[in-house]
Automatic annotation (TrEMBL):
Protein name: DUF1573 domain-containing protein
Keywords: Signal
Native source organism of the sequence: Limnovirga soli
InterPro entries: DUF1573, Ig-like_fold
Pfam families found in the cross-reference section: DUF1573 (PF07610)
Amino acid sequence: MQKLILLFSVIAVFSLASCDETNTSNTPSANVGIDSANFTQVQWTDTLIDFGTITKGQKVHIVFKCKNTGTKPMFIYYVRPGCGCTVAEYTKEAIAPGGSGEIDASYDSNHGIVGQIRKSITVQTNTTNPSPQLFFTGTVLDPSLARDTTAKKG
């Protein structure tokens, strides 16, 4: 019985170890940001987006797009919003020359202030031109004032 348990344990360990389907050719290595021989060029569509006016409590979805204008695969390897009210996802695979990637951010106004806001997202890529700091701006209205304004219009 002990041999049978040992056999199943060994099989389980080997099965789990062989399930790693990571495609290392599409994921950045630890030194992608310092390997200047593999740097490329990036062009950002917008580095500043104004989402307009929302009422406190609403969430806003902001998308920053970029294009690999160089000749080597591009990696977005670091994305960090400037505050806890913003969450950002980004293209994690290699972006082929001519291909596009994006930073997909969500801003939750429940965790921010009322009034004019300006938030940043720090980005690092394996590019020769500096990675920009991305910004989004807008106005967050106090919900009680927004209702008063709506009531007066009706």
